[in-house]
Amino acid sequence: MNLLLLTPQEIDEQGCVQLTDRRHQHIQQVHRLNKGDTLQAGVINGLCGEAEILEQQPHLTRLKLNLYRQPPAPLPVTLLLALPRPRMLARSLEHLTALGVKKLVLMHTNRVEKSFWQSPELKPEKIHQHLILGLEQAKDTQLPEVHFKKRFKPFVEDELTSLAANSLKLVAHPGNYPSCPRNINQQLTLAIGPEGGFIDYEIELLKAQGFQAVQLGERILRVETAVTALLARLF
Amino acid sequence: MNLLLLTPQEIDEQGCVQLTDRRHQHIQQVHRLNKGDTLQAGVINGLCGEAEILEQQPHLTRLKLNLYRQPPAPLPVTLLLALPRPRMLARSLEHLTALGVKKLVLMHTNRVEKSFWQSPELKPEKIHQHLILGLEQAKDTQLPEVHFKKRFKPFVEDELTSLAANSLKLVAHPGNYPSCPRNINQQLTLAIGPEGGFIDYEIELLKAQGFQAVQLGERILRVETAVTALLARLF
Questions:
Q1: In Gene Ontology terms, what is a biological process of this protein (chains A, B) (predicted)?
Q2: Percentage of residues in chain A with pLDDT exceeding 70?
Q3: Which residues of chain A carry a pLDDT beneath 70?
Q4: For chain B, which end, N or C, has fewer CB atoms within 10 Å of the first or last residue's CB respectively?
């Protein structure tokens, strides 16, 4: 927890907040802070700054906020990610939130196992929890939007044109394609397939929407590694 | 398992191999291959190619190898990594092996918890297992070397000069430093600190050995994310 993240509702009119949950425990047991100490804090979808500890009790921490600066700039990317297997989804959500992705589409593709859509990891509260951990890690406040698209073809044919308008459109796919570009400095829509990759038909559908296939070399990376490697190289 | 990885001792004079372990199960239950099918295969620290299934029994798979090509090129990097917490170590070993790191030094620093050195994850057989998973993932055969340095100062002062000779020397550290360079195309020695970072004294010791501090932006990444992000950007 590099940033204490609060909801607007938790903050009173004096800019104070009283915590009794895992954040209270983390401040007391991991950070080991006492009255008068400060830590970095921010409000979800709002400003960052510091929080000063006014009071420490065994079961609560009371803090006074001083918020004055913008969170880090978001990555200018819309990420289209074939739904990963549940454990990898959890980690990928934290990685990509920490890296600054603000718009994520989790989509079905041919090689996504249908059972993944039934996983408890897809419950809104579980997704939210991983996004919060990613924000706390990266000292960011701006929650990513997460969208679900369970039908690939209608999504690509009917919705992607406007979603990806005025952006560079890339699909990461192993094979005889150009190397993934570096440091692109422009708005991007990036599609990443499941374990086993997109099928040819899906690549064709994406190409018909203006996507270019690019590759990262002959090493095949796990989805969570590929997401980080692609974003680090592109931005 | 994108590559079936074998030891030289498993292969008989006719180039055949008989498997009864998890690889046999994976071929039968995950890949669902039958007699006459082929899959990609390689020998640890040796060549890659294909294996044809000669025989499938409930408890064994017999294959014939045809190995003829070199594994993917290694990354020209020596990675100095402050020992991560055990679960993160496991994942980091798989990520960095999949990315092509062949020389890894796991080192103690001030902010590495001493208890991490007692973890069962540091047993040679556990380390080996994660390296093998990373190689299978990336279709590589060349095992990384892993070294342990439990005393930071003697390692940096007495051993690092020769270890890092003729390489670009970078230490990733958040702060007011130049951005991490891209696409460096040269031999690199890269130091990455623990959660909480290096302490100033450690940065000074590394600088005295010719290391330049570089940073990845204001977002603080977990060690496993940072390793992938740095390598993807540098190579």
A1: methylation
A2: 100
A3: none
A4: N
